[in-house]
Task: structure prediction
Amino acid sequence: MSEATTPLYEVFIRPKAGLSHKHVGSLHACDDDMALHMARDVYTRRAEGVSIWVVRSDLIAASDPVDKDMLFEPTASKIYRHPTFYDVPDDVGHM
Amino acid sequence: MYAQALDQKDRSPVIAEDPVRLERFEARCTAEDKIEPKDWMPDAYRRTLIRQISQHAHSEIIGMQPEGNWVTRAPSLRRKSILLSKIQDEAGHGLYLYSAAETLGVSREELSEQLLSGKAKYSSIFNYSTLTWADMGAVGWLVDGAAIMNQIPLCRCSYGPYARAMIRICKEESFHQRQGFEIMHTLAKGTVAQKAMAQDALNRWWWPCLMMFGPPDQASQHSDTSMRWKIKRFSNDELRQKFIDAMVPQARFLGLDIPDPELRFNEESGHWQTGAIDWSEFRRVLAGDGPCNRQRMRVRRQAEDEGIWVRDAARAFAAKRAARRQAAAIAAE
Result:
């Protein structure tokens, strides 16, 4: 193809007030404004959201899947960070 | 299905994979773990998925044409609005799928080029003409019905981005099938001429729809690996049978006849059995000799050519806005 390529954007949508934006997919657009318009057409044809974020994919810093174990292992070994780790007598009631 | 051409031979050289990584990968597939874009995957897995997802995307894009044929002649404003929404959905589905394919390392431009050059295939079904308004009913009811049969298991595909795209698509596809059935139902209980029109549409679409599921299992070349890698969950014949079993009662409800004198219910297996499918027709259509193959490609290429100025203008506008922002930033310093 002789035509120039258009940048890739990631699209995030807030499904309704009070919820956080969630990644829904990606699209190509020439700039931020056009990406927003396009995201509206492509990803919100059925009242999927009340707010859209778009960001150029190449601006996202991401963790490397190879580092997954190293990065997230500590959350598994520190079970005392979870409330269920602690013994609370039944008589105390709900805590 | 939409990726029927997968069942044709893959001629790329086979790359010897690292056995340790391959074993780990296959264990993940067996454990129903999802594979994500940056995870290690065998070359054949990547290639199969690129082919399958892009064929699926191309099918959605080409699939707009048979329906577009009826937009200006829809019988009412209600039907016209529905048809427009449906076509817009097809474009959306194509876009979700192209994005999913791109996560595997192929560019949108390459994908588009593969379609335009004829290198990539799309579903055989979209090479049939939509001759009457009843065809809009038959396409929704039968073609989208067949597509849903195939796509529901794809929501559990091992490749994360594809599975997620399929979940969105399946949610939207259900409206397509129901609106098609409604059109058929309206015609079937209408005048004698309207009912005949519905029957004629069923007659023409029934067999091509059965072919959508791809060649019979004994002739399919990719199934074993695709099953092991959890790309595919059911064989072509299994899905075809599910479709037949679902459709026969619906056709009866409509008071329409399935155009198959050999169709009978097999008490033993509990399934409807059809007569022989004419696979020579399937191969002919897939090879480029169906009723509309040339027209579909011509229209697609024309749309691409006529869209160049729009894409050029969008790029020029983006550049102009960026330059203005930059100038304003400099002026503000």
